[in-house]
């Protein structure tokens, strides 16, 4: 463009254009910014970067003991392999060894003690990965084995914790339980989950002349990688630059876990002064890195004849693995979501952070929320079976709302509660009642296959519960041809964050999406960023970018008013043009004019979330800026001979406020639902009695494949319902909340199982509901039926 | 030296490690990084590429996992990767549809998905939903939940203009003809060697010369020894260039399946006579694996959880084993001796598999149980083939996978059935007998108790399916 305006538009044409809306701004289903590059193989991931001629590749040797003292560690045999540059152990780390995210506990390489099977003990760098691996396996490592703690029950029993328990308390739950018309107690294991991002952990580093590093990484948390690389090297943060263009999936698995490979590569680069890449092969990735926390949850609930909960106590025990990592906040979030959308009456919720000799469990989409949120769904199913009611009726009865029933057990008021209306809407649109009837009829005459149905809601709190993390920065430059460079502190892992933030900037300047160049997240451009996590990416970075854009825009408006001698109100940006009272000019032309008039065309932007706080001492506060809501109705068919099942239909209604990009939001909802259903069905993590992960690859760990999606899949976003809070264009976060819609599949499977005993019993089934677990639950039902029949016969005799 | 087309460019390679996979060749040698490594074990599909093979007057396109394909398998073929689809600025319809339907999020699985869609477009006119599922079942996506991808696979058919592969077909055919293997190709690299014989006689001679050599057909299991167990295999004999070994012939009384015929080809031949064999193969790994993997390989690796042996044993299949000039025929059930131990002698190899036609067989059903429906390894595989005449069981062949160290017949169950009246009472007795037949193990796929119970339950299913066909018995019938 610039000085070469071909097809210069007439004044009339431009006036016509400014009457029209921008077609690629906020609220439009703009395509993912990388889509065309991804489908053609042109999108560059870290491993695709052109390698340096002298590049080294690193392999880390893992511990094959769950808990042991290292009695001998000799890396000299590694050097017998031609091509090996260096073998490092903990003592070769020049700076700080520990890379724990919040609290210490994660040595980069084992320091005399191994605490899980898969822990990196030493690392070898060579000209190629295979040589590095062979050499690493040749090192001599001897252990003296110690007793491991492998079960969460054992850890709970022994009070073997990575940090202290925490309790939310409202009213006198013991008295409420004692006085309840009905009581149920129960316990359930909720399984963990492997992230299975398609791109495994990877970092590639280049040493700089200042003793620092340039790090190309696949991380949700560039600032933390910068901090930790600096700390392990013992240099100041400003020596380290992180560049993060895109991840091949993250899901929380690259919030803290990406730092290890980056730091190991940096230590090698520090010693060798050569560029170094560390990419984890799939099996090593699955064994070395943490996963979603498995939980062991115990509950006691009191309720009245209608099924309304009057009191509730829950103990939520997160299996944290060997170190704290983010477990404090993760177990907190499980506690914060143990009410889901329901008023629990007098409640005591206690969270435990159990230390076991497993990889340190970490962030995963929902961040503990799902493991807490599933509890009231299990409890309400129990109550419905006990009272012989439809679970949906009991769910509706217990929703927040009404006199004195709008405050959570951590004393945040539930404002703008969308659930009652959304559930009614979905109940109608999914034809719940008619299908419920049809399923009863089907089950009565189908001896082998049984169908199940469940409608479950989600209420999910948005904000980092570590309040200080709720901040973000952005950087915008406008060049003299009118093209815009956009950078922000968030990271792109496929969720469409870059697309959404660019749409915000496009909307602010009223220019087409294509005008904006999205660039790699880089600590040199936007410093001190928070991880892209807690669903906060667009909320925080969208606002920061909006603020940066508004700063520049304000300068431009002031300039135009001055230059054209009009009022500021006379200056408007519309559809790639600037309207200055009667004057209209293309955006690019206006930018040039501003440049020649010495106007700054670059700005940072900053945002912090208002209103939120949490007082840990009193366990009260407003940890969440707002709640996102959703509900799903799933129907399944279950084979009572094998326990196998299929999802027949899923109807979803989800609340994203005023959507920034409906297509991207629907993609998040659908993907989250299927991932959530996978968590609760086929994704089973199995460790052996030595603490070794047996399901360490996709051959043994089964994430949903194409036919696991619902046969009939109907997803809607709630329309015309803006976020009541002042979020970016009144949108709502979408990354995590819909994950928990998958709980409807779990409850539908339980519903099908319950049909075997005429819906009078609540199947006790741990998650994930693998075909095997389903079959055992069916057997329980059958045996109970048998006993009931025998008893009935005995009575008549 | 091997010769192949990298898209349409002739590549002549004589200094490659025979243990190198096509994925590593692409990424490290050809510097084409569009093809991704997701697992290096053939389970995620991110590395899917398409091989074009000369098939008379046309080119046959098949999706394969490049992470499980050794470079020798490229000899005489066209290798098409995701980079080859776009022409100038114009995306291929498979790519454009993915963009239009919002089918990519993180994008890492996307190149593999595009290639599976591309192969689908080349092989299937307007696909049914099942055909789309079949094409994509070996491609894991962790982001989208698949709905937009399936939509894209439908939508790509809206664009009916010939793509560059159609337009260049005559030229590509000519180039492929030029590089068709006329004689045995070899790839030598240090102490390692790979041979590509082109006739059975050459293979027989090679196998006698190198009894230690590993035969590789699809490589879908063997390659795991390299990519997962990190073994080095010094001598490989690639059998995919032997036309006689890839033949599938249907006779009046039998079907003969060359040991190097792909599972996809075997599927087509067998599913006509035995629809349940088709249903089984549908759940057998993924299309990429079935395009590469062979019946000979699935038998020869002697896994206790291979899916075709129990079905073939239940059908009374035989093997032809060859050594040098000598051939012998063996009942498949006698081939398996103990865990990974077979009746195959050093220097011997499987030449073909012979399956009797349906007319001479009974009511065949095969049932696979796995954690995930698609592309999963069986916890239990039960196959039943009973001849029932005049209300009596004339003969019974019942075979299981996943229940013992080898694929095995349930002899006590068969005994309880044979000669007995075909009724519920007999089934109950046969179930009790079946419970005595095996003592399976517990592992991460299933517990011993689950295996025992479902094995018995599958006999119930068989009875119900034959006696009460109106009763729904399979969740997989819902698509």
TrEMBL record, chain A:
InterPro entries xrefs: Ald_Oxase/Xan_DH_a/b, Ald_Oxase/Xan_DH_a/b_sf, Ald_Oxase/xanthine_DH-like, AldOxase/xan_DH_MoCoBD1, AldOxase/xan_DH_MoCoBD2, AldOxase/xan_DH_Mopterin-bd_sf, Xanthine_DH_Mopterin-bd_su
Limits of the Aldehyde oxidase/xanthine dehydrogenase a/b hammerhead domain: 40-147
Keyword entries, A-Z: Molybdenum, Oxidoreductase
UniProt similarity note: Belongs to the xanthine dehydrogenase family.
Protein name: Xanthine dehydrogenase molybdopterin binding subunit
Lineage, uppermost ranks: Bacteria, Pseudomonadati, Pseudomonadota, Gammaproteobacteria, Oceanospirillales
Gene: xdhB
UniProtKB/TrEMBL annotation, chain B:
Keyword annotations: FAD, Flavoprotein, Iron, Metal-binding, Oxidoreductase
Segments forming domain FAD-binding PCMH-type: 187-360
Pfam families according to UniProt: CO_deh_flav_C (PF03450), FAD_binding_5 (PF00941), Fer2 (PF00111), Fer2_2 (PF01799)
Entry annotated with the keyword DNA damage: no
Domain of life: Bacteria
Residue ranges of domain 2Fe-2S ferredoxin-type in the record: 1-85
Name of the featured protein: Xanthine dehydrogenase small subunit
């Amino acid at each position: 463009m610039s000085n070469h305006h071909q097809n210069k538009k007439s004044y009339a044409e431009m006036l016509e254009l400014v009457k029209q809306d921008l077609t690629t701004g906020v609220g439009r289903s703009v395509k993912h910014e990388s889509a065309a590059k991804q489908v053609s193989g042109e999108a560059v991931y870290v491993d695709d970067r052109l390698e340096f001629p002298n590049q080294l590749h690193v392999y880390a040797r893992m511990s094959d003991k769950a808990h042991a003292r290292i009695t001998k560690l000799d890396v000299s045999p590694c050097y017998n392999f031609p091509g090996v540059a260096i073998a490092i152990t903990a003592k070769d780390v020049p700076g700080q060894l520990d890379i724990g995210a919040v609290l210490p506990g994660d040595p980069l390489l084992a320091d005399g003690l191994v605490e899980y099977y898969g822990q990196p003990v030493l690392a070898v760098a060579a000209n190629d990965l295979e040589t590095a691996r062979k050499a690493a396996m040749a090192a001599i490592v001897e252990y003296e084995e110690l007793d491991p703690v492998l079960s969460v029950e054992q850890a709970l029993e022994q009070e073997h914790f990575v940090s202290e328990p925490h309790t939310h308390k409202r009213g006198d739950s013991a008295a409420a339980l004692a006085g309840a018309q009905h009581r149920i107690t129960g316990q359930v294991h909720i399984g963990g989950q492997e992230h299975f991002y398609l791109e495994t952990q990877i970092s590639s580093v280049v040493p700089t002349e200042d003793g620092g590093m340039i790090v190309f990484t696949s991380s949700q948390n560039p600032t933390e990688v910068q901090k930790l690389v600096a700390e392990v090297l013992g240099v100041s943060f400003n020596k380290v630059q992180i560049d993060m263009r895109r991840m091949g999936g993250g899901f929380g698995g690259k919030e803290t876990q990406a730092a290890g490979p980056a730091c190991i590569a940096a230590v090698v680069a520090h010693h060798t002064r050569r560029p170094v890449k560390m990419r984890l092969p799939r099996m090593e990735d699955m064994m070395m890195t943490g996963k979603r926390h498995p939980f062991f949850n115990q509950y006691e609930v009191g309720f009245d004849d209608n099924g309304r909960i009057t009191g509730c106590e829950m103990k939520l025990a997160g299996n944290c693995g060997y170190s704290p990592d983010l477990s404090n906040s993760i177990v907190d979030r499980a506690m914060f979501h143990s009410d889901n959308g329901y008023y629990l009456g007098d409640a005591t919720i206690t969270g435990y952070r159990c230390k076991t000799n497993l990889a340190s469990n970490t962030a995963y989409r929902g961040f503990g929320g799902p493991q807490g949120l599933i509890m009231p769904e299990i409890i309400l199913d129990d109550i419905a079976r006990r009272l012989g009611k439809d679970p949906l009726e009991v769910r509706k009865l217990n929703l927040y709302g009404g006199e004195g029933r709008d405050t959570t057990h951590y004393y945040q008021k539930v404002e703008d509660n969308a659930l009652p209306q959304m559930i009614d809407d979905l109940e109608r649109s999914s034809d719940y009642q008619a299908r419920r009837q049809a399923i009863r009829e089907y089950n009565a005459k189908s001896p082998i296959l049984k169908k199940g149905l469940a409608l479950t809601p989600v209420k999910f709190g948005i904000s980092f519960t570590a309040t200080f993390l709720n901040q973000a920065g952005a950087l915008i430059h406008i060049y003299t041809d009118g093209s815009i460079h956009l950078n922000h502190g968030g990271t792109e892992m496929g969720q469409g964050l870059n697309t959404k933030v660019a749409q915000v900037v496009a909307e602010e300047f009223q220019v087409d999406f294509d005008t904006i160049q999205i660039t790699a997240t880089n600590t040199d451009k936007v410093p001190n960023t928070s991880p892209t996590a807690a669903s906060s990416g667009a909320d925080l970075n969208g606002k920061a970018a909006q603020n940066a854009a508004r700063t520049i825009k304000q300068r431009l408006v002031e300039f135009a008013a001055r230059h054209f001698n009009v009022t500021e109100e006379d200056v408007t940006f519309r559809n790639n043009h600037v309207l200055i009272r009667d004057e209209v000019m293309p955006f690019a032309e206006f930018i040039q004019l501003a440049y020649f008039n010495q106007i700054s065309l670059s700005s940072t932007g900053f945002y912090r979330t208002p209103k939120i706080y949490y007082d840990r001492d009193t366990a009260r506060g407003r940890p969440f800026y707002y709640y996102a809501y959703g509900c799903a109705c799933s129907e399944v068919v279950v084979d009572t001979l094998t326990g196998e099942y299929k999802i027949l239909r899923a109807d979803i209604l989800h609340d994203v406020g005023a959507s920034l990009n409906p297509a991207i939001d629907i993609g998040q909802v659908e993907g989250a639902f299927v991932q959530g259903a996978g968590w609760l069905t086929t994704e089973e993590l199995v460790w052996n009695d030595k603490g070794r992960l047996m399901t360490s690859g996709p051959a043994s760990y089964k994430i949903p494949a194409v036919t696991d999606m619902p046969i009939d899949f109907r997803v809607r976003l709630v329309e015309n319902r803006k976020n009541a809070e002042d979020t970016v264009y009144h949108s709502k976060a979408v990354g995590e909340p819909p994950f928990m819609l998958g709980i409807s599949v779990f409850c539908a499977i339980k519903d099908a199982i319950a049909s075997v005993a005429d819906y009078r019993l609540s199947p006790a089934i741990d998650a994930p509901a693998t075909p095997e677990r389903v079959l055992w639950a069916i057997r329980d039902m059958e045996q109970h039926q048998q006993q009931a029949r025998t008893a009935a016969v005995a009575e008549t005799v | 030296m091997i010769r192949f087309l990298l898209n349409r460019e002739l590549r002549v390679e004589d200094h490659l490690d025979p243990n190198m996979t096509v994925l590593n060749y692409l990424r490290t040698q050809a510097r084409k990084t569009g093809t991704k490594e997701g697992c290096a074990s053939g389970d995620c599909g991110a590395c899917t590429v398409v091989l074009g093979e000369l098939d008379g007057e046309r080119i046959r396109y098949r999706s394969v996992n490049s992470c499980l394909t050794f470079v020798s398998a490229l000899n005489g073929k066209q290798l098409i990767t995701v980079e080859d689809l776009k022409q100038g600025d114009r995306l291929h319809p498979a790519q454009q549809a993915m963009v239009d339907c919002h089918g990519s999020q993180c994008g890492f699985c996307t190149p593999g998905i595009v290639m599976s869609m591309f192969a689908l477009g080349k092989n299937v006119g307007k696909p049914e939903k099942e055909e789309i599922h079949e094409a994509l079942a070996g491609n894991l996506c962790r982001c989208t939940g698949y709905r937009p991808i399936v939509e894209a696979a439908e939508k790509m058919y809206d664009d009916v203009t010939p793509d560059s592969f159609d337009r260049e077909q005559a030229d590509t055919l000519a180039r492929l003809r030029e590089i068709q293997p006329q004689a045995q190709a070899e790839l030598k690299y240090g102490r390692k060697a790979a041979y590509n014989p082109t006739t059975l006689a050459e293979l027989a001679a090679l196998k006698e010369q190198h009894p230690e050599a590993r035969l590789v057909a699809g490589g879908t299991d063997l390659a795991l020894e390299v990519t997962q167990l990190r073994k080095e295999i010094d001598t490989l004999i690639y059998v995919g260039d032997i036309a006689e070994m890839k033949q599938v012939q249907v006779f009046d009384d039998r079907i003969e399946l060359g040991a190097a015929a792909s599972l996809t080809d075997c599927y087509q031949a067998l599913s006509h006579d035995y629809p349940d064999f088709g249903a089984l193969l549908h759940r057998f790994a993924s299309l990429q694996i079935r395009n590469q993997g062979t019946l000979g390989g699935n038998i020869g690796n002697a896994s206790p959880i291979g899916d075709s042996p129990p079905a073939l044993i239940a059908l009374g299949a035989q093997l032809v084993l060859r050594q040098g000039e000598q051939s012998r025929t063996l009942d498949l059930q006698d081939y398996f001796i103990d865990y990974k131990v077979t009746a195959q002698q050093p220097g011997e190899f499987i030449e073909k598999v012979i399956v009797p036609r349906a007319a001479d067989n009974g009511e065949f059903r095969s049932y696979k149980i796995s954690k995930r429906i698609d592309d999963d390894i069986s916890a239990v595989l039960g196959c039943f083939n009973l001849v029932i005449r005049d209300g009596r069981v004339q003969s019974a062949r019942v075979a299981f996978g996943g229940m013992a160290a080898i694929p095995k017949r349930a002899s006590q169950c068969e005994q309880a059935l044979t000669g007995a009246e075909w009724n519920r009472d007999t089934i109950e007795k046969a179930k009790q007998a079946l419970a005595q037949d095996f003592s399976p193990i517990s592992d991460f796929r299933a517990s011993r108790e689950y295996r025992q119970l479902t094995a018995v339950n599958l006999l119930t299913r068989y009875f119900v399916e034959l006696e009460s066909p109106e009763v729904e018995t399979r969740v997989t019938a819902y698509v």
